[in-house]
């Protein structure tokens, strides 16, 4: 097999560190296991962030997400765990992770976790008529 799951998140320099801009990454195939039943849980992850000095490299992110496939996690715990790892790797100005889990027993779960750098203030939004 050419690729294997990995907990290593690679980065690259932000090409425009002087500008606030947002990056949105959609991960439609996240899987982990239910810690109670061992059955698979499926989710779509949406990562929105404003980079500081670094950006996350997408292939390493794919392998990182893959590393959860055979692990048992509660939805709330795994969402916060992923956010913590991403923030540790790239120290963004802002990051929001939205995890929309598929139905399990007639219940959908969406978990949203955020990070904001203490010294960052978002720019005023432009309002057009």
From TrEMBL:
The keyword Metal-binding does not apply. It catalyses: 7-aminomethyl-7-carbaguanine + 2 NADP(+) = 7-cyano-7-carbaguanine + 2 NADPH + 3 H(+). This is NADPH-dependent 7-cyano-7-deazaguanine reductase. Belongs to the GTP cyclohydrolase I family. QueF type 1 subfamily. Pathway: tRNA modification; tRNA-queuosine biosynthesis. One of its GO terms (molecular function) is preQ1 synthase activity. It holds the Pfam family QueF. Substrate binds at residues 56-58, 75-76. The active site is at 34 (thioimide intermediate), 41 (proton donor). Its EC number is 1.7.1.13. It comes from Thiorhodovibrio winogradskyi. It is an enzyme of class 1 (oxidoreductase). Keywords: Cytoplasm, NADP, Oxidoreductase, Queuosine biosynthesis. It is found in: Cytoplasm. Catalyzes the NADPH-dependent reduction of 7-cyano-7-deazaguanine (preQ0) to 7-aminomethyl-7-deazaguanine (preQ1). The keyword Oxidoreductase applies.
């Amino acid at each position: 097999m050419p690729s294997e799951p990995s907990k290593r998140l690679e980065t690259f320099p932000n090409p425009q560190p002087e500008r606030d801009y947002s990056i949105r990454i959609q991960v439609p195939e996240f899987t982990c296991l239910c810690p109670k039943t061992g059955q698979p849980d499926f989710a779509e992850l949406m990562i929105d962030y404003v980079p500081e000095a670094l950006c996350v490299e997408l292939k390493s992110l794919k392998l990182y997400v893959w590393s959860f496939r055979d692990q048992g996690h509660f939805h709330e715990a795994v969402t916060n765990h992923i956010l913590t790892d991403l923030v540790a790797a790239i120290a963004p100005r802002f990051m929001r992770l939205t995890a929309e889990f598929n139905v399990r027993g007639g219940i959908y779960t969406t978990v949203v976790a955020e990070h904001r750098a203490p010294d960052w203030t978002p720019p005023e939004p432009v309002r057009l008529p």
